[in-house]
Design goal:
- The structure is a single chain.
- By secondary structure, the protein is an all-alpha fold.
- It folds into 2 domains: 17-75, no CATH class; 78-187, no CATH class.
- The chain is 65% helix and 0% strand.
- The protein contains 11 helices and no strands.
- Helix 2 (20-33) crosses helix 3, helix 5 (77-90) runs antiparallel to helix 6 and helix 8 (119-133) crosses helix 10 (167-175).
- The longest helix has 17 residues, at 146-162.
- The protein starts with a helix and ends in a 7-residue tail after the last helix.
């Protein structure tokens, strides 16, 4: 009996090499199942080619296939990027995290810039994170030794910066005395999404 079969109960089989039509089927199944970008689709197909290889005599053109899917509307970087950016902002992530996520998805620089949140959206996202994490006026009043209070403030400030918020917004949220003060700060900037 095969050692692998003895430990796992099944036989490991190497997947068949890919040809053009099988690669297209994989691509179609991927875009049907996941919202994706052209960059993510390309990376997926290239990974599948590395894992499985290609049928002798065939060299699938991944770029052409991805372009074909984009032309047919199966993959839309702008729609994907807009949805992803909105999702991250609604969960309290800042502009830097949005940009990093879109870059990782293979969204081009100009489109990343266009989809990045404006000032009003940045402030709303900071408020969302503060409310969710209990920072600033949403948390308990900071009591204790001045050194402990300072350390906790720095820790909360660092958490906001890690979430993609710029330092000034994070400091504004952490140092706010009341919820109303923060809500007024957010309302100062008209919503640019309309």
């Amino acid at each position: 009996m095969d050692d692998e079969r003895a430990t796992s109960g099944r036989i490991s089989r190497r997947a068949k090499p890919l040809d053009r039509s099988r690669l297209e089927e994989l691509a179609l199944a991927y875009v049907a199942r996941f919202a994706t970008s052209t960059g993510k689709l390309k990376a997926y197909l290239e990974r599948k080619l590395r894992e499985r290889g290609v049928v002798d005599g065939e060299e699938p053109d991944v770029e052409r296939l991805v372009s074909k899917f984009a032309a047919r509307g199966y993959v839309d970087d702008e729609a994907y990027g807009r949805a992803r950016a909105a999702d991250l902002a609604s969960r309290g992530y800042g502009a830097r995290r949005v940009e990093q996520t879109l870059r990782a998805a293979g969204i081009g620089e100009k489109l990343r810039h266009d989809l990045g949140p404006g000032e009003a959206a940045k402030r709303r996202a900071a408020l969302v994170l503060a409310r969710k994490r209990g920072f600033g006026p949403f948390g308990r009043p900071l009591d204790g030794a001045p050194e402990d209070v300072r350390k906790l403030r720095e820790k909360r400030l660092a958490a906001m910066v890690r979430a993609g918020h710029d330092f000034d917004h994070a400091r504004r949220v952490i140092e706010a005395c009341t919820i109303e003060e923060l809500e007024e700060w957010v309302a100062e900037i008209p919503d640019e999404s309309h």
